[in-house]
Specification:
By secondary structure, the protein is mainly alpha-helical. Helix content is 73%, strand content 0%.
Length: 207
């Protein structure tokens, strides 16, 4: 075999090497683009989820807060129940969290910095709804006045706690959206766990 044949073989080898390199580079570029697009899509879904939940939680907290009159209203009802043992307060039906329910199939899009508090908030909302349904039933009016008062007091306490949870969630979402995951994690580290705290409600303005 002559020298020209070897040169031809070497040329074909180099062509194959170059072609393989181009293909490999294409795979790398395509992979990077796919990962970039996936990150962008996930970030967009996260922003949308946070915005929707923020709006819903803010509305729920506003209902529980009643422009600052919630505790006064509850205290008046409790005082009346104590004065009038036969008095049974009207309990409105609790229906909240439709946005959260619609997101349950993609709840994993939420980051670890906010998901625990969001889930804790809505779990407590579900408990309040269940208790409200019980109090709207036939058995609640037949309870002894002391027992009825205790159940109503627990109902009010759960709403106070849910308001506090909601205020924390709103702050967490705001910090995460404005300052990023590290800042939100620092805030999470400064809070008690969602199941632990029974602290009093925070005002909507954060005072």
């Amino acid at each position: 075999m002559g020298q020209g044949a070897f040169i031809g073989i070497d040329a074909r080898i180099w062509q194959a090497v170059i072609a393989g390199g181009v293909v490999a580079a294409g795979w790398l570029v395509n992979g990077w683009r796919m990962r970039r697009d996936a990150r962008r899509l996930r970030n967009e879904r996260l922003r949308d989820a946070h915005k929707a939940l923020f709006a819903e939680i803010r509305d729920i907290c506003a209902i529980y807060w009643l422009d600052g009159r919630a505790e006064e209203h509850a205290a008046d009802l409790i005082a009346r129940m104590e004065r009038e043992p036969e008095f049974v307060p009207f309990i409105p039906r609790e229906v909240h969290g439709l946005i959260y329910q619609s997101m349950m199939g993609q709840i994993d899009v939420l980051p670890r910095q906010t998901i625990d508090w969001i889930v804790a908030f809505y779990t407590l909302i579900r408990s309040i709804e269940a208790l409200a349904d019980d109090m709207r039933g036939e058995r609640f009016p037949t309870l002894e006045p002391e027992r009825r008062l205790a159940v109503y007091g627990e109902y009010i306490e759960m709403r106070r706690r849910a308001f506090g949870y909601g205020q924390r969630v709103l702050k967490l979402i705001d910090v995460y959206s404005r300052d990023g995951a590290d800042a939100a994690q620092a805030m999470v580290s400064s809070l008690s766990t969602p199941d632990a705290g029974r602290s009093g409600p925070e005002r909507p303005d954060g005072d």
